[in-house]
């Protein structure tokens, strides 16, 4: 039976230059491979060692990139290794099969959102009314499923975030702050639901997962074994659960460690 490996991407496997956390002396820094370019600028990296591990993992298990990115944002990433048959985008809103959206899955997600939480327009309008231009840089809607802000993190009031989270929870939405992005996502829109669907289709009897943010908690809880890096929302709050390993590594070296753990566990079965 196959092993399914579902991993978040940003700040879990791949890292922007600001998130690399290269705290070692320059001469000892790992060699990096750029895996994302946007508008002629390099954006995301992993170590060359991680690239080799990911290639080996793709040959050993069913590797499923599992991201909150939109499909367009995901498709500009060029990961090493065999192209994944399955990928999960928009926090579970889109299940890609050989790069193409599974329309039936997307329709099921939309129906559940309509039944179980406040509409996107209500949340989007609330953010537009309450966000302060002093710290707001962008306000976006992703795939007509959720919304997010790009903010000046050092100016963002913590109390405003707490108030927003409480307001959103009463309407069936979750708030997650990741770097300079603040996400508002419907609670029924989950990575774990999409991963369970992939596990059903592939017949996987073991699911491994990794992630760093609040939006990854359900993914980690749904897996048989999971790992979180030493940075991110989950680390900052001390979040843990049965079957979850909290790694000490931070930044791009955490991504390398996660891939080592995936490969070791996948080979053990």
Any chance you could write out the topology, listing elements then pairs?
Blueprint: E1 3-7, E2 32-38, E3 41-47, H1 48-60, E4 62-65, H2 71-75, E5 86-89, E6 94-97, E7 100-101, H3 103-116, H4 120-130, E8 136-142, E9 146-151, H5 158-169, E10 173-178, E11 181-186, H6 191-202, E12 206-210, H7 217-222, E13 225-228, H8 233-236, E14 244-246, H9 252-268
Parallel strand pairs: 1-4, 1-12, 12-13, 13-14
Antiparallel strand pairs: 2-3, 5-6, 6-7, 8-9, 9-11, 10-11
Helix pairs in contact: 1-9
The residue-averaged pLDDT reads 97
CATH fold category name of the largest domain: Rossmann fold
Percentage of β-strand residues:
25-35%
Widest sheet, order of strands: 4-1-12-13-14
Measure the end-to-end span.
9 Å
What CATH architecture label of the largest domain applies? 3-Layer(aba) Sandwich
Structural category:
alpha/beta
Q: What is the assigned CATH homologous superfamily of the largest domain?
A: HAD superfamily/HAD-like
Q: What does this molecule look like?
A:
With 269 residues, the chain is of the alpha/beta class. It has two domains: 3-110 and 189-268, HAD superfamily/HAD-like (Rossmann fold); 118-186, Hypothetical Protein Ta0175, Chain: A, domain 2 (Alpha-Beta Complex), CATH 3.90.1070. Helices cover 35% and strands 26% of the residues. The strands form four sheets. It has a five-stranded parallel sheet, with helices on both faces. Helix 1 (48-60) runs parallel beside helix 9 (252-268). The longest helix has 17 residues, at 252-268. It starts with a strand and ends with a helix.
